[in-house]
Design goal:
By secondary structure, the protein is of the alpha/beta class. It is built from nine helices and nine strands. Helix 2 runs parallel beside helix 7.
Length: 269
């Protein structure tokens, strides 16, 4: 990995760090948009390939385009963010029927979250879960760690991380949607945890200091981010050297049809 990243990571869609200094492997499972099924994925990345991977995930910002194209890109981004916000305002009320995969307690059980932890969570909290994968299957979060949850949603993963790090640790969840952050705070209050906090912020512009987190988790969020390269760069910026990045997300098993590419609503599905 290039020196500018610095961290040893578990980058997942899912990812684990290889013992070879210059190689990283992505392996585990991802949720496929087409039908919600989980499929195996294993990709080995060299230094160059990791940079290529990040580059391929970026949607061109229009920096080299004419002014009219730049304006179109800005307008498109605003529309996408607004569409995503509308969906997650609904999710804040209930995720039932809004996703092509199990949500709530059924989703947590299907993804094999630790049953010992689930038993400690109120049903009101688990029912708001809408993640695409089990980020905690990707690595160990130690007591006393400082953890960031990018795109925390209703805060279920944030709360679980808070239980893992204990009273000496801290967990911050960030999300763009005010309504779902209110639900996350409500859920945290239900558990009695004092070591979790929530901020309204974008993954593309984290209002947090450099090298401040031992672990970063994210569940089904980077696929929604407009500028993915910027979001990953921000994550690496705030991650400590030798920190862990653990991401569960969605990928396409086959290319979008042209009509789907043109649809703004495709981003919020």
């Amino acid at each position: 990995m290039k020196e500018k990243y610095g961290q040893r990571i578990h980058l997942s869609i899912y990812t684990t760090h290889s013992k070879e200094a210059s190689r990283y492997s992505i392996k585990g499972a991802v949720t496929v948009l087409a039908n919600g099924n989980t499929v195996p994925l294993e990709i080995a990345l060299s230094e160059k390939n990791l940079e290529d991977f990040l580059q391929s995930e970026r949607i061109e910002s229009g920096e080299e385009s004419q002014t009219s194209e730049e304006n179109n890109m800005v307008d498109r981004k605003k529309t996408i963010i607004n569409d995503i916000r509308k969906k997650y305002v609904k999710v804040a009320k209930s995720p039932d029927g809004l996703f092509a995969y199990p949500t709530g307690k059924k989703g947590l059980e299907a993804l094999r979250y630790d049953t010992r932890i689930l038993k400690k969570l109120p049903l009101e909290v688990t029912s708001s879960y809408c993640g695409v994968g089990n980020v905690f299957s990707l690595g160990t979060i130690e007591r006393g760690e400082i953890v960031l949850d990018i795109g925390c949603g209703a805060g279920v993963d944030t709360i679980i991380a808070g239980m893992m790090v204990g009273e000496q640790g801290r967990v911050i969840g960030i999300d763009l949607v005010s309504e779902i952050l209110e639900l996350a705070r409500h859920n945290a209050k239900k558990t009695g945890l004092k070591n979790v906090a929530f901020l309204r912020a974008s993954a593309e512009d984290l209002p947090l200091p450099d090298k401040s987190f031992d672990t970063i988790i994210s569940n089904g969020v980077f696929n929604l981010v407009f500028d993915k390269k910027k979001a990953f760069s921000e994550a690496f910026r705030v991650l400590k050297p030798k920190g862990h990045l653990m991401v569960a997300d969605q990928v396409l098993a086959s290319p979008f049809e042209e009509i789907e590419k043109a649809s703004q609503s495709s981003w919020s599905q």
